[in-house]
Specification:
There is one protein chain. With about 60 residues, the chain is an all-alpha fold.
Length: about 60
Amino acid sequence: MPIAPITGRLRKRFWIDVTCAFSLGISTAYAFWHVFLYGVHLKALERQENYYIKLERERAASSS
């Protein structure tokens, strides 16, 4: 009794792999932008800008 050939399995597996890859990639990119950009980078940028504003005010006060 021969075993029936498995047809279409590779094609189905390919689409599952592509779907999972896109889903994981998009969710990782979304997490990166929200955690890194909004959680870390913008806060560090705000601290840096506040420091430079403070320096400018001190320089303006000392030159007046």
